[in-house]
């Protein structure tokens, strides 16, 4: 297990470097001058000041040199400053708790509802519960998330008053249950379908038939034999989904006016504030890679054959 962990850690390094370099290149290769954008396109900023700002942010260096300087600073824990002089780390610290609360709540909803739904459908394959789950998950995939968000906000927030309409003043969990539920819908449907398919496949394997033939109860066969192997692909998906939930909530944060990282990235892109976009994206890449490393280790625990692959 130790050797497998070391191999996975070594694999993370090139992935991190490649991903962050791609993000850095794309962001700073965007057309337009961010220094000009700071003045709103007006010409009241002198060229000498503009040149000084370009030098301060290394904008005149080749992109590889810019990236190298960024990584040197990052290794020292410095995410740099945005074009307004604010520390990117301070921006992240201010908005990070909202994104964490929203993402984790959505992720827990996916686990607590998606997996039981999938198990329920698999154990009643071809019957009414299975058909009900199929229709429910199809609707979740078919309806755009922003439509669900607006409808839920109007009905559950404005009309019925069950949840706060927007903002985080009500605190967790009250302010996050509704937006997190909307955010979790597609992942929940995918979790349910994946659990159902995987469990049905494992229920038809020889070792499950053998356990059943030995007289072991149905519940023990499902829980002790079929379900453990069935959860391997589900755990992998949920790990990837956690990373996606951390940075993919821009629409939901906008609808419910939540001051999270997704909303901050959206505003930074509009203002051509490259350092903020790169800094937040780098953090999300780190979170994504760490979560996937943990998932891989858990995967290896569930199926020891993977450690020797």
Task: Summarize the structure in words.
By secondary structure, this protein is mostly helical. It has one domain: MetI-like (MetI-like fold, Orthogonal Bundle). Helix content is 76%, strand content 0%. The chain contains 13 helices and no strands. It has helices at residues 2-28, 34-38, 47-56, 63-75, 88-123, 128-142, 145-159, 174-203, 206-213, 218-247, 250-255, 261-270, 274-302. α9 packs antiparallel against α10 and α10 (218-247) packs antiparallel against α13. The longest helix has 36 residues, at 88-123. The protein is flat. The mean pLDDT is 83.
Kindly list the characteristics that best describe this protein.
13 helices, single chain
Question: How would you concisely characterize the structure shown here?
Answer:
The protein is mostly helical and 309 residues long.
How do the strands and helices of this protein lay out in sequence?
Layout: H1 2-28, H2 34-38, H3 47-56, H4 63-75, H5 88-123, H6 128-142, H7 145-159, H8 174-203, H9 206-213, H10 218-247, H11 250-255, H12 261-270, H13 274-302
Helix pairs in contact: 1-13, 5-6, 5-8, 5-10, 5-13, 6-8, 7-8, 8-10, 9-10, 10-13, 12-13
């Amino acid at each position: 297990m130790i050797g497998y962990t070391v191999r996975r850690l070594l694999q993370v390094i090139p992935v991190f470097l490649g991903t962050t370099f791609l993000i850095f290149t794309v962001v700073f290769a965007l057309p337009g001058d961010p220094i000009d954008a700071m003045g709103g396109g007006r010409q009241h900023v002198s060229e000498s000041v503009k040149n000084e700002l370009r030098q301060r942010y290394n904008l005149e260096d080749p992109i590889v040199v810019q990236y190298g300087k960024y990584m040197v600073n990052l290794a020292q824990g410095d995410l740099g400053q945005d074009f307004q002089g604010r520390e990117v780390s301070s921006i992240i610290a201010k908005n990070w708790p909202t994104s964490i609360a929203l993402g984790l709540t959505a992720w827990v909803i996916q686990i607590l509802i998606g997996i039981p739904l999938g198990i329920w459908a698999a154990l009643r394959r071809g019957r009414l519960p299975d058909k009900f789950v199929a229709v429910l998950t199809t609707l979740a995939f078919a309806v755009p998330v922003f439509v669900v968000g607006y409808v839920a906000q109007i009905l559950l927030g404005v009309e019925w008053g069950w949840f706060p309409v927007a903002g985080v003043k009500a605190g967790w969990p009250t302010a996050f249950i509704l937006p997190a539920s909307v955010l979790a819908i597609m992942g929940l449907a995918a979790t349910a379908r994946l659990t159902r398919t995987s469990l049905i496949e494992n229920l038809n394997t020889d070792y499950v038939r053998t356990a059943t033939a030995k007289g072991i109860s149905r519940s023990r066969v499902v829980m002790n034999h079929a379900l453990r192997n069935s959860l391997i692909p589900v755990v992998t998906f949920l790990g990837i989904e956690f990373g996606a939930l951390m940075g993919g909530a821009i629409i939901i944060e906008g609808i419910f006016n939540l001051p999270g990282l997704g909303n901050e990235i959206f505003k930074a892109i509009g203002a051509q504030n490259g350092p903020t976009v790169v800094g937040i994206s780098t953090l999300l890449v780190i979170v994504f890679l760490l979560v996937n490393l943990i998932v891989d280790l858990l995967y290896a625990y569930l199926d020891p054959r993977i450690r020797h692959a």
